[in-house]
């Protein structure tokens, strides 16, 4: 049966009219977006980011409020900058905002998002979190490493005392605190110090520190290519090139670490006992019951996170705490009085004493509030609609 030509035309016109009305309706729907500055074409609000982006964002939040929307190139970015907003994103709706954006740092410095920090939400991420809670950072595991922390702390205190009595006028405390945290972490994670001169190692102590400093820096930079993907290949700031160079250095070091540990496991045979966190990771990688197999590159990514996560952060926090105490003699006096009253002067402070030192604990918390190690958290990405 053939329809008259005018019916075909009418259907075509009605369909076109319906599409036009639908598109206008959709465009007319007003989304209740957070306030924020008007973005420019292509670059969005990147022009408002200064040399220290966290300060630029703070200044904008003073104008637009604790919840605001920015546009970084092609991507909308919602910024929460208050206690209430932190609870909203990180606690109340933690699972919804558990995703991670794809960035150059995650791709090039963490084995293509195979570590704990940058891995996307999913079975691998859930397994990684479970490993951290149940195995790597369990109370029993951390308690078993207490002797390492005590030995390294006593060693650094003896060094500082020796320098102070040698007649030198000044001590660069930061260097000693960095050495302390690196020695503690490397012994807990890798099983030995990596800041001692040893001709058998693949990196020198200086190179080891420089690698960690570079890793910390490159994972916190604002890479323009992440915001405007179609110019990413240009690497305008040179960050991607530096990430690739760093990745090769770290991979060479971590391959050496894993080879050493596997050799020790082979020699130990059935009597082998885990000594450090790399041993634990390699043991988990052999577990056939894992939901997602932990590959060798995953073990290296986890190990890199463990080394980097606890070194600079600890040293910087202690340095700021001492700096603030020296500027506030009254606070220092009260802290000293608490130590004298609870601990006395006949023994060192032990980790089990910390719950009985509320004033010292308050100083630590206030230090972290005033001087956060990382002014901005690793960015999260909304998973809204993924499971719908």
From TrEMBL:
Pfam (any one): p450
Cofactor(s) required, per the database record: heme
Signal peptide, first to last residue: none
BP term (GO), one: secondary metabolite biosynthetic process
This protein's UniProt keywords: Heme, Iron, Membrane, Metal-binding, Monooxygenase, Oxidoreductase, Transmembrane, Transmembrane helix
GO MF assignments: heme binding; iron ion binding; monooxygenase activity; oxidoreductase activity, acting on paired donors, with incorporation or reduction of molecular oxygen
Keyword Iron tagged: yes
UniProt keyword Iron, yes or no: yes
Segments crossing the lipid bilayer: 6-23
Entries under InterPro entries matching the protein: Cyt_P450, Cyt_P450_E_grp-I, Cyt_P450_sf
Family: Belongs to the cytochrome P450 family.
Name of the protein in question: Cytochrome P450
Organism: Dillenia turbinata
């Amino acid at each position: 049966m053939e329809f008259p030509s005018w019916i075909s035309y009418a259907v075509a016109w009605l369909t076109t009219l319906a599409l036009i009305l639908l598109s206008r309706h959709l465009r007319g729907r007003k989304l209740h977006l957070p306030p924020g500055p008007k973005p420019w074409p292509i670059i969005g609000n990147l022009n408002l980011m200064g040399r220290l982006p966290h300060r630029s964002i703070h200044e904008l939040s003073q104008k637009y409020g604790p919840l605001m929307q920015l546009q970084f190139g092609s991507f909308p970015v919602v910024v929460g900058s208050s206690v209430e907003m932190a609870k909203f994103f990180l606690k109340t709706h933690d699972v919804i905002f558990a995703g991670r954006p794809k960035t150059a740092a995650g791709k090039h410095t963490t084995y293509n998002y195979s570590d704990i920090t940058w891995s996307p939400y999913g079975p691998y991420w859930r397994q990684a979190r479970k490993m951290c809670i149940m195995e790597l950072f369990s109370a029993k595991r951390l308690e078993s490493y207490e002797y390492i922390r005590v030995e390294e702390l006593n060693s650094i205190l003896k060094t500082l005392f020796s320098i102070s009595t040698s007649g030198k006028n000044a001590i660069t405390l930061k260097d000693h605190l960095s050495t302390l945290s690196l020695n503690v972490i490397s012994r807990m994670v890798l099983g030995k110090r990596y800041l001692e001169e040893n001709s058998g190692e693949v990196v020198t102590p200086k190179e080891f520190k420089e690698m960690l400093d570079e890793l910390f820096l490159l994972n916190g930079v604002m890479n323009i290519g992440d915001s405007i993907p179609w110019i990413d290949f240009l690497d305008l700031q040179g960050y991607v090139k530096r990430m690739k160079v760093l990745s090769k250095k770290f991979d060479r070091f971590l391959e050496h670490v894993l080879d050493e540990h596997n050799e020790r496991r082979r020699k130990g045979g059935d009597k082998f006992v885990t000594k450090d966190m790399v041993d634990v990771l390699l043991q988990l990688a052999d577990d056939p019951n894992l939901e997602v197999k932990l590959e060798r590159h995953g073990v290296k990514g986890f190990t890199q996170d463990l080394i980097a996560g606890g070194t600079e952060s600890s040293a910087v926090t202690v340095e700021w705490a001492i700096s603030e105490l020296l500027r506030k003699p009254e606070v220092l006096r009260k802290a000293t009085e608490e130590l004298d009253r609870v601990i006395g002067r006949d023994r060192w402070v032990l980790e089990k004493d910390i719950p009985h030192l509320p004033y010292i604990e308050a100083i630590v918390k206030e230090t972290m509030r005033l001087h956060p190690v990382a002014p901005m958290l690793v960015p999260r990405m909304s998973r809204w609609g993924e499971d719908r």
